[in-house]
Amino acid sequence: MFSEYDVIVVGAGHAGCEAAAAAANLGSKTLLVTMNMQTIAQMSCNPAMGGIAKGQIVREIDAMGGYSGIVTDLSTIQFRMLNRSKGPAMWSPRAQNDRMLFSLKWREMLEQTQNLDFYQDMVKGLLLKDGHCKGVVTGLGHEIKAKSVILTNGTFLNGIVHIGEKNFGGGRMAEKAATGITEQLVSSGFESDRLKTGTPPRIDGRSLDYTKMEEQPGDDEIVGFSFLDVEKPKKQRSCWITYTSQKVHDILKTGFDRSPMFAGRIDGVGPRYCPSIEDKINRFAERERHQLFIEPEGWNTVEIYVNGFSTSLPEETQYEAIRNIVGFENVKMFRPGYAIEYDFFPPTQLKYTLETKLIQNLFFAGQINGTTGYEEAACQGLMAGINAHQKTKNLEPLILKRSDAYIGVLIDDLISKGTQEPYRMFTSRAEFRTLLRQDNADLRLTELSYRLGLASQERMNKVVEKRSSVEQIKVALKDFAVEPEEVNSYFTSINSSLITEKQKAQKILLRPDVELEDFATALPRLRQALKNFSRDALEQASIQVKYDVYIEKEKELVQRMSQLEELEIPETFDYKKISSLGNEAREKLTRIKPRTLGQASRISGINPSDVQILMVFMGR
Q: Which stretches of 187-290 are assigned E, i.e. beta strand?
């Protein structure tokens, strides 16, 4: 029934979909196995993509030829560029999406992908032999052979759903858990643990009074995520903001004695940066209210997602509390919020390719590695799909450095430091964030992916054109002279100091209160000189001119740091023989097996003197 595949991907969430698309587009014969073909790329929690640092990841996935950016743009119902008031290193795109349309577009794109087959069944085990993964075993008893297997099981491994004192097996509400894989891997020597995540109640939007809430419209212009020319919606749906109150908190507290989290029925650690509402009012008792975002689930549905009200309290407590929120007085609830507890495998057990250290040709991606969020999962899937293909074809692996991409930061953090709570990406995690902006993801990554064979010729052509345009604009700004009488009225309007003699446009653009688009609008000669360039190229040139000093400083820092990254440590290096290393350092270095001295330096518990000792023993 089944021929042998190059790559089998287990699970069709965000990680699995990107993994399958990447492997298949690179030329591997790929099989995507999922328990339910109707829930491919399901947005299990909030119907949104992007956000702080997460938006940068989606743009990086898109720049490399992944599908997440395209699907997001095709299903967007609202778009906002967050942090516009800060520097461009902090700008982060975020889209509210149509939940059903998002899943539909993902399935359509996957079904149009060559080399990709589908099969609906549960994978209950792996075919393991002599330290290699040879395929999978399904719930129906099929043995499907493959040269590489990627596990992207999400929250399904021994998943348990909790609502108050009720609990039952499940990977999501109304979907059964996956069993067998954890037990097999643990018996093979893997370490596993438990994590928790949660979701809020879903509400009937017809029962809400929006006149009592603050409207949150989208941006006037939808920038979007994909660097391709994907058609954007002509209209947008608003979100809304309301707040909890002390009365809401008091009602919620009445259910604490039946909370699975406080009663000890949940062992897994929940996400620090997306806590449940009961956790918020417990940890931040001094706060009288918490902000809630009222988010539509799509264009043609009345279902509402109550962002900020994740909970696993009893249903009656949830309902009583939520109807005391302003605007929710007559609320009708579609379904209660719940928590889900699931198995994960600490990611220090992985190589940088996301292949496991214990079993060759077995890759992990997504929440199985302890991350939270669609974006974090999707980028791991992309990298696992690429590297599974590369391994299968005996090609060089693709490893992104911390200075290359947020994707590189995420994978390095997971493997070097591990995680004891669901890992979420933030701009603060990236020490080179001035270089890793959302606006230049294509300039950073498309050529690399194109050489690999993943990014298309169309993407590469756009990058070449953009680079050329940016350089032309920078030359034009450097040569363009501005007379005081042309520009002083503009300076007066923005409360900026006037000029008394001719100045170059490039120098004027260095002023923090001057933006190129407004500057060109106020100066017809300049607007005429720049009229043939795209908005994207103009923005990129403006950023490069304004932040040139900071960008160059960061590049110098990358260069200095790269010296440690280039010093590779042999896989057979025996740390136990170095008596001058402390016990903790020897134990962690032996367990994690860092690939380079740079990675070794970032392992928790490894100090600079340990790195110096390693350099001496390596003859450096």
A: 193-199, 202-204, 214-216, 239-243
Q: Note the pLDDT tens digit of each residue in 115-140.
A: 999 999 999 999 999 999 999 999 99
- Render pLDDT for 223-273 as a digit per residue (tens, 0 to 9): 999 999 999 999 999 999 999 999 999 999 999 999 887 877 887 888 887
In the three-class reduction of DSSP (H, G, I as helix; E, B as strand; rest coil), residue 599 is classed as helix
Please tell me what DSSP assigns to residue 480. -
List C-alpha distances in Å: 156 to 18, 119, 169, 260.
18, 17, 9, 19
CA distance 511 to 18: 42
Distance linking the first and last C-alpha atoms of the chain: 55
Q: From the CB of residue 319, how many other CB atoms can be counted at a distance below 10 Å?
A: 16
Region at 270 (left for phi over 0; alpha for psi -120 to 50; beta for the rest): beta
Decide: 9 and 152 in contact? Cβ < 8 Å: yes
Q: How far apart are CA 149 and CA 100, in angstroms?
A: 28
Q: Kindly list the structural domains of the chain, giving each domain's residue range(s) and its CATH number in brackets, ordered by start.
A: 5-198+342-452 (3.50.50.60), 202-337 (2.40.30.260), 458-551 (1.10.10.1800), 566-617 (1.10.150.570)
498-512: average pLDDT:
94
Give the Cα separation of 555 and 455 in Å (integer): 25
Write the single-letter amino acid at 494: I
List phi, psi (to 5°) of 204. -80, 110
103/49 Cα distance (integer angstroms): 13
**Which pair of tokens denotes residue 346?**
């600490």
Report the DSSP beta bridge partners of residue 423. 371
320 contacts: CB under 8 Å, gap ≥ 6 = 251
DSSP string, 403-467: TT-HHHHHHHHHHHH--SS-B---GGG-TTTTTS-GGGHHHHHHHHHHHHT-S-HHHHHHHHHHH
Identify which of 313, 343, 377, 355 has the alpha carbon closest to the alpha carbon of residue 163: 313
For the stretch 410-413, contacts whose Cβ atoms lie closer than 8 Å and that sit 24 or more positions apart, written own/partner, are 410/57, 410/371, 410/376, 410/379, 410/380, 411/352, 411/354, 411/380, 411/383, 412/352, 412/599, 412/602
Percent of the chain residues topping a pLDDT of 70: 100
pTM of this prediction?
Answer: 0.93
User: Pick from 69, 104, 194: which is nearest to 459 by CA?
Assistant: 69
Residue 52's identity, in one-letter code, is I
Rounded to whole angstroms, the Cα distance separating 155 from 402 reads 27
| Beta carbons of 140 and 120 less than 8 angstroms apart | no
Strand 143-151 relative to strand 5-10, pairing: parallel
If you ran DSSP here, which 8-state letter would residue 232 be given? P
